[in-house]
Amino acid sequence: MRSRLNRIRNISNSQNLNIQIIKKNKERAESIKERLDEVNDILSLSEFYVNSLHNILITTKDKYSKYQKLRVNFAENSLKENIDVLFPDRGFVPRIDYEFSRNNVKSSLVLLDSRGNTRTPKITEGGFLQQLIGYTSAISILRLLNSKTFYIDEAFSQASSENKEIMQNIIHGYTVNDNIQTILISQSPECYYQLPRREFTLAYKNGEAYLESVEDYESEFIPNTDLGFMESPNNDERDLNHDNLNSDMYNLNYNDSLDSLINLEDLD
pTM score, two decimals? Predict the structure, then answer.
């Protein structure tokens, strides 16, 4: 009888222990379930954010690509207009090609002639046309950035006297239409002598340069309206705002200008 009671007591104790274990396991299971629900909520929210960021990235890339093409088209139109002014019989159509490699942009410019032939300015064209491309590319950047000061050093040294005089129309057009102040260093007055300006004349004495004179010229320049000039870009085309961008055209390679134009945000 006693042994049976002990057996029953042992069975009861074992059952109670199992019950306690089950209760603890249930509590753990409920705690794990709560944590799992929290994890699932976090995963669901993370998936939402990932999808949202992916859509934003796609939209941003698309808009930036369109804006990039807009800048390139703007530069191509500016180049064509200035080339037509100085080389009206050539019929050149500029085309800017570019590609990205390791976050760097590599650009090139070719000219399509009236027969559809592709010409590389560095090889097929003279020095002044190359200088004109560099000048136009650089000032296109200024116009897009809404900058108002342009520094150039002997930019048109390889131009003929006639072409230098024609350049006055282009410089004057940028001054009037875009309010760009040009600070020009030149040994020849042919590209500015008819323009209103403040002229600083430097001279040398005992091997040192000094300021010889400062004169203001208020002549009213009458542009050649037969040449025609492009209107200023609208705000959508140049909605970035930087105050000053200096360009030394003596050392400026026009491909450098084109690369900067395509990757415009690097000019901050």
Answer: 0.65
